[in-house]
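Researcher: We're teaching a course module on how sequence relates to structure. For the next exercise, students receive a sequence and then see the predicted structure as tokens, so they can try to spot secondary structure elements on their own. Here is the exercise chain.
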Amino acid sequence: MSTLNVSDVNAAKVSISSGGLKLSSHNGSGNYPSAETGLMIYDSSAGGAKLYTGSQWANVGGGSLDSGDRSGRSGSPSPSTFRYNTQDGQHEYYFKNDHSNQAENLWVPMGGRQLVAFEERSDNWSSTDIKWGPGDNKTGGYYTSYEIVMNFYEQDSGNGEYYFRLIDANGNVDTNGGRYFYMGSGWHANDGRPRDASGTGGRSYVNFTTLNGSYELQSNGESSYVAHIFLANTPNNSTANYWSFYFHGAGGTEQAGGEYHGGGVWRGASQKNGTGYPLGGIRIYNNQGQRSISAGCNFACSVYANMPSTRDYPLTGNYINY
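Model: And here is the predicted structure for the students to work with:
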């Protein structure tokens, strides 16, 4: 007899002399059979065997992580559940919130922080666009709080300045006047304190270095600048189209060295599918052209999301439509 078709086989010992043992195949954790302690299956999505330990499905030997969109998440996850979310483009785990006074349990990026975009340049550039999520017509990258970290080599000549404009949910750079409202000030090695403000009429850009010629950026073949920009929005059904931001940077200036910081609000966000105003990216400018180099880079930028995906907020996730 070559084939035996039965529901269950009970034996003290099963020996297989050739051919191997073929497990039942299931595409992702959302399609697993009813769990029984000691049950072993094959997950075709993760590319490996799974064993139910009595409390969770554990990996057996090699294989890759369980992966799939949000609908493929386990129906009974634990804090040790780790997977790759193909829809949002993030490695994620189930956060039970056991160590605070809050009760919301939710799926979050590993470490609570997700690298969304990265760019590196070495040419003589004057502006560069970094897009993610809706700004680049992608399914992932939808977050409501971002940290942008930038490292700059110097520009081609002195009196250097850096600016930014933001990219809306349709992928458009907002160049309109009266949309960016902010204040900035600095403190330099000569104890000088330059400051600048958009005024209540707003501007069409944000300068995150000073516009004061005595304190602008230095160009001497050795100079550099580092800057952080933080942006956040609270999505809800009461318009909420403002994105707040603050920035902080430091480096070589016309007064040897100094720092510059400030913050404000952008009022140019566009709605996505009738719910929420997600951010689609950022355009970085320099006024003198970045000094090109033959090896290495003259600019590096990482964009991080530092909150869960907007879709996974316990309240907001039920409101937004993207």
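Model: If you want an answer key for the exercise: The mean pLDDT is 91. The chain has two domains: 13-75, 114-318.
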